[in-house]
Amino acid sequence: MITLGEGNTPLLPAPRLSERFGVELWLKCEGANPTGSFKDRGMVLAVSRALDRGATGVVCASTGNTAASTAAYAARAGLPAVVVTPRGLVARGKIAQARAVGAEIRELDGTFEDAHREARRLADEEGYVNVNSINPDRIEGQSSAAREIVDQLGGSPDVLALPYGGGGNTVAYAVGFGERLPRFLLGEAAHRGNTFASAIRIVEPVHRAAVEEVLARSGGTVVTLDEQQLEDAWRLVAREEGLFCEPASAAGVAAVAAAGASGRVVCVLTGHGLKDPDATERLAA
Known about the structure:
Strand content: 15-25%
Radius of gyration: 17 Å
Number of helices: 12
Structural class: alpha/beta
Distance between the termini: 43 Å
CATH topology of the largest domain: Rossmann fold
Shape: globular
Low-confidence stretches: none
CATH class of the largest domain: Alpha Beta
Number of domains: 2
Largest sheet: 6 strands, mixed
Order of helices and strands: EHEHEHEHEHEHHEHEHEHHEH
């Protein structure tokens, strides 16, 4: 097993947001992972198992965080990595991370869905292991965050609030919680194709069917958020709790603000603010 020290991220009480929303609110800070996002939890397992099975390399499609994580863990394992991204739609901080550790970046004109198809083709034709969340090892690794929350809280929360892009993290948390699911509250961008929250800039969620099953089991819902709601939530997290996250990470908080919640609520902040310097510089002005 390769490792960069992923997991065991802080779960912090949010007293000012708790008072604002009338709940007991906690923030799970996944930006504390080695490459600055929750993706590391699944990537360490996916790349370790690819290495163990004799893979010649790994490939992924990405809106940014998967690219950075794939590249870092592939470098740690001594494997080549190919990252396919939609041109002009990925935050520069994330591409810089992937380039810095030696990944081959292949940009294409199109959407994340186009990049995903190309990554699958490369996996089929060049024999690399696809480490997107369609890889079950990714889901298994990311499920560790749910078990951490249970350990840190001493039980499951009443509500889990997450950003909703491709849906893989929702599925992973459901696996991690097992039979005792909290109510899932998912924040998605109203304009999925061009939202400034680049980490959830995914038009067609890869895991849509599985996400709908999780929502049905948990009594959860998807909250569709406009750009102003996402901006407002980002500022609340930063200015009321002192936590600097990338814009998409605040989607769970925005969902709580828009839809309401009760009891003990955990909002997952999926990535660090330095992931997307252009967006955060504008928001912080």
